Every structure is written in structure tokens, then in C-alpha cells.
Amino acid sequence: MEYATRSRWMELVEFLGADRTIAKRWFDRLDQSYRESHRRYHTFQHLEECLEELDEIEGDEERLALMEVALWFHDVVCEPGSRNNAVASAVLAKEFLLECQASESVVEFVRDMILATQDHQAKDDPDAAIVIALDLNIFARSPQRYAAYEKLVCEENAATPTAEYAAARIAWLQGFLDRPAIYESETMRDIYEEQARFNLEEGIKRWQQG
Fold first, then answer.
1. Domains of the chain: which residue ranges?
2. If we measure between CA atoms, which residue out of 142, 64, 156 comes closest to residue 110?
3. Quick one: CA torsion of 201, 206, 207, 209, rounded to 10 degrees?
């Protein structure tokens, strides 16, 4: 992992008021998770792309820092096919925050942000809508990067028969296109929506064509 990303984590933990011992120990745990051999898309590259987009958002410094914590942890548990990844990731985030002596409200805020990335439904929570948009910023990247993303998530799910995976993938992508808007955050929608719809439509066509 590049030094810049590690340095960013250390600064974030320092902002939360914890010491470098905690920061280093948790960085090692995160690093180990994001480097798991079965991961293809849910790696540090995905995290770094989320953080790059977060840097473009203006707002309360503490609120943005807690969103960043949620992003660092939202994929720390990544077992292909599991519906419990977000819950398990939120548990680890809570463990980390308690070591940082965070308040109950802070723990709940981060937990809610992580859990929102499971089904990508903000439920009228504007902060969750932003975190979801950041998690799904891949939809709105260049067609080449989006195509690479589709290939990588397919590789992560290699244990699933191809025809079964393709059908499920088409249904999942179509579910986003069927929404009134892919992105519930109006701010992020203005930035992402048009390119995301194009990429998802092209992605579905490729899966349908085999």
C-alpha cells in the first residue's frame, strides 16, 4: 500500500483523538483484510477511489471524518456471496471506535453509514446517501474503468456458475436503473447520474450478449 494512504489513515485516527499505537495496529488489520487473496475489486484501489471523491465534498470537518471512517471499514469484511459483510464490518468499526473512546452517537453514526452500503438504500438519511454514492462512484467512472470493475467483481464471484452470476448481475444492475435516481443525494446525482446510467446500460448489454 502506498505511503500516502497509510499516512492519511494515521492523520484520521489522530483527528479522532487516539494515539499512534492504536492507529498502527488497526492499519495493519485493515491492510491485511484489503489484501486478501480472493479480492479483485474490493481492494485498496476501491477505497482510494472513494476517498478521492470524499475529498471533493465540503462540509463539517468532524462529519466528513466519520464518513471517512465508515468508508475505511465498509468493505473490511468481504466474503463473496455473503449478506452479512456490512454487519460484520460495522462490528469491527465499533471495536475500533471504542478503542478511540468515541461516544455512542459517533459509533451509531458510523454503523449506520456502513450498514447503508449493504442494500444501498439511504432511507432519507442525507449522510448515508452521500456515503452510498461514494461507494458507488465506480458506476460513474470512465467506461474503461467501469468495464474493468465488472470483470473484477465477476472474478471475485468465480465460485458462482457463470450463467447464474450473469442473471443475478443483470437483475442487480437493472434494479439501480429502475430507481427514479441511482443516487439519492441530489449533490452526488448531479455529478454521477448521467455517466452511471450509461455505464450500467452498457454493462447489462454486455452480460446479455455473454
1. 1-135, 141-210
2. 64
3. 120
